[in-house]
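Q: Hi! First time doing this. I have a protein sequence and I read that you can turn it into a structure. Is that right? Here it is:
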Amino acid sequence: MYKPEQWDLYQRNFYYRQTELLTGLTKFYRIDASQAVEVLEILQMHKPEIVINVGGSSVADQCKSNIGEAVNSIYLLNANLLQCMKNLESLKRYTYISSSMVYGDFEDNEPTEESPKKPKDPYGAIKLGGEYLVESFNRQFQLPYTIIRPSAVYGPFDSNLRVTGIFMANAFQGIPLRVNDPQELLDFTFVEDVAQGIVHATTSDNGLNQTFNMTRGSARTIHEFAQEIKRHLPDTSVVVGQSDEHMPGLIRPKRGTLSMRKSVELLEYQPSRDIEYGVGKYVESWRRIYGN
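A: Yes, that's right. Below is the predicted 3D structure, encoded as structure tokens:
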């Protein structure tokens, strides 16, 4: 996923991933995963026990602008995978990565997995539709699943340019970080924490046919995140009270901390990386990929 106006950044990130991150893989296929024939051939060849779906558009404002692309890359891709896997005897778990955007406004202080789902934007609605489809395949075909709802994931190799990536790009270009509401909260989750949680939920017996919030479990303000970037890049200017520029025109839900009780109790999931650690790693990776 990329934003057209940031094509150069995306290209550098893509090159680094292709030349550095994919070298350790046993196999890598570049295909259109919405095409059943190609997916089915790979599944029949490798007979996987675990399939983790992290595909699809992942930036809410881009999904609003390109709803057809979002439906194809999120919902139809998920449907195609399910159709190809429903008779796959080797399959022990299919993990679908959803989003905290399915809740819409956080009506509860810390929404649990059972809290009302009222998405306010196409991205959240499409992700929620994908969850229902996964659950229906379990009821109809006994397909084993795990659903994960992350929130505000950030860290190395992120080229999607949500608010955290926009702040990072602006900081390196000497552009002020604009914070409209200094009290706006997000449950910022470092990518290594959520990756470890996904693996644990997928391989744990307690994760079978369950849905989990998978976040830091402790919301911080966007202003705090901006100030943490400034700590690592002292020349950065943070401007409060002016219109922020992330996800322009999108009706964003009011969010905060997600309840992690279920993940902690069933999975013993213990996310530990706060923004004081994560932003530093983010800055290191940004320099490695893009320079100064």
